[in-house]
Amino acid sequence: MNRLLPQPLFSLFLWLLWLLLVNSVAPGQVLLGAVLAVALPLLTARFWPDRPRLRHPLKLLRYIAVLLWDIGLANLTVARLILGPTKRLRPGFIHLPLDLEGDFAITLLASTISLTPGTVSSNLSADRKTLLIHALDVEDEAQVIAHIKQRYEAPLREIFE
Amino acid sequence: MLEILISLFLLIGGIFALIGSIGLARMPDLFMRLHGPTKATTLGVGGILIASVLHFSNRGDGLSLHELLVTLFLFITAPISAYLIARAMLHLRGDKDA
Amino acid sequence: MLSAAITIAFTCIAAALLLNFWRLLRGPTLPDRILALDTMYINTIALLVLFGIHLDLTAFFEAALLIAMMGFVGTVALCKYLLRGDIIE
């Protein structure tokens, strides 16, 4: 945005984080939090190789809502798979071709995959083109890939690229 | 009323944490073991932390939201731990792309 | 009502910790043990928060947050050691 606030959303996040950490909204803490929120992005600017650019903050909120819902579902699915007979599970590795490019977006996608039903991302290839995913119970590989692409990767592309 | 809600969250949390650990104990190989702790355990702790938010906000000294910080932190770090452990396993097995 | 729920939750977490400990002892590979340790950290956070509710004290929050951070750093350091044979490059 400008030189004082290079990453406005990051600053907002830090400010909220500080208020949560001290668990109070006393004027002194609000002020101290604001100082930290301005100072920390400036001091750490050189550690950010590429700054993720948020195109649609509102879509990110929608993405988070979908994600929280899916985490709930994921837990029920995984609980069922864990408590059921283990012999009938069909575990396997899936190679997911990536369309995303930014480091931050790929990190978000990989974390999303780990938190949602029956899949854990296990390795990103050196050229950042494929993500190796382990699935607990796969019926149809192509269907899992299509599901991830449509439900998580497409919105992330819209938000960041 | 609120007490019932707190109790419910505590039970959900405890049961999911237990299920995650059962997964860790009984699945036959490492990659399958990863699924339990990354998902069920995070939600298990999440449930107990939400119960804690409700309980301490109800005491009368204002809203207490800092437990959400631990939940947020776990949601961010659990996939990263799982990714690194999976990578370490691939590396030990000698897969070339690890 | 609440105290009954707390007792049940305590039992669940304690059983979970025992299962984690069993996996920690049994292995069979190093990543298995790291995973068991990581899960133990997370369950310990739950145990601490639960203890805080039980005693009606907020003082345990800082300990829970610290365990969450140190646990994560520990897991990352152990995995990096396995991957590279070195922690600080």
Describe this structure in words.
Chain A is mainly α and 161 residues long. Chain A has helices at residues 8-22, 27-43, 57-83, 103-115, 141-160, and strands at residues 92-97, 119-124, 130-135. Chain A folds into two domains: 8-47; 57-160, no CATH class. Chain A contains five helices and three strands. In chain A, a hairpin with a 5-residue loop joins strand 2 and strand 3 (130-135). Chain B is mainly alpha-helical and 98 residues long. Chain B has one domain (2-93). Chain B is 82% helix and 0% strand. Chain B has three helices and no strands. In chain B, helix 1 packs antiparallel against helix 2 (30-57). The longest helix of chain B is centred in the middle third of the chain and has 28 residues, at 30-57. Chain B is elongated, with a radius of gyration of 17 Å. Chain C is mainly α. In chain C, helix 2 (30-55) runs antiparallel to helix 3. Chain C has one domain (2-84): Helix Hairpins (Orthogonal Bundle), CATH 1.10.287. The interface between B and C is large, with 52 and 49 residues.
Question: Brief description of this entry?
Answer:
Chain A is mainly alpha-helical and 161 residues long. Chain A is built from 5 helices and 3 strands, in the order H-H-H-E-H-E-E-H. Chain A is globular, with a radius of gyration of 19 Å.
Instruction: State which percent range the strand residues of chain C make up.
Output: under 5%
**SSE arrangement of chain C, N to C:** HHH
From the alpha carbons, calculate the radius of gyration of chain B and give it in angstroms.
Answer: 17 Å
Q: What coarse outline of chain B follows from CA principal-axis ratios?
A: elongated
Uncertain runs of chain C are: none
Class based on secondary structure composition and strand pairing of chain B: mainly alpha
CATH class assignment of chain C: Mainly Alpha
Mean pLDDT of chain B: 82
Number of helices of chain C: 3
On the 0 to 100 scale, the average pLDDT of chain C is 86
Largest interface: B-C, 52 and 49 residues
Q: Could you describe the largest sheet of chain C, including whether it forms a barrel?
A: none
Assembly annotation? heterotrimer
What name does CATH use for the topology of chain C? Helix Hairpins
Low-confidence stretches of chain B: none
